[in-house]
Write a structure and sequence with these properties.
alpha+beta; Ribosomal Protein S5, domain 2
Length: 133
């Protein structure tokens, strides 16, 4: 917890192998990821867009400050995990927004993960090239 900040709530978001702990406080719309600004942590605009999607949908992007601790996975998985965490907090703060977030698909945990490689195959399902002769 930061000095002098009283958080409104916190939630956990997961995607692929990423785990994000999201803390929400009243503020001016500042988003901090692993003690770095959002623009610095996610250089790709698509990842920043995914993180801010829930705020933009509800129109509260300049109402809250967000502090995020995220680990594991790559940038896409981390952005998705953060979006789920933010959506969960916003739904718990204002239950009337839950329907809007649910309809947009932001409250659903994306269960897709990388399938493991099987023995005797080149990948998870891809086999080696078959030669008849």
């Amino acid at each position: 917890m930061a000095k002098g900040k009283s958080y409104l709530g916190h939630a956990v978001g997961r995607r692929k192998s990423s785990i994000a702990r999201v803390y929400l406080a009243d503020g001016s719309g500042k988003i901090t990821v692993n003690k770095r600004p959002l623009d610095n942590y996610f250089p790709k605009a698509t990842s920043r867009y995914v993180v801010e999607q829930a705020f933009n949908l509800l129109g509260v992007s300049d109402k809250y400050d967000v502090n995020i601790n995220v680990k594991g996975g790559g940038t896409t998985g981390q952005a998705g995990a953060i979006r789920l965490g933010i959506s969960r907090i916003l739904a718990s703060l204002n239950p009337t927004d839950r329907g809007t977030l649910k309809k947009a698909g932001f409250l659903t945990r994306d269960a897709r993960k990388v399938e493991r490689k099987k023995y005797g195959l080149r990948g998870a399902r891809r086999s080696f090239q078959f030669s008849k002769r």
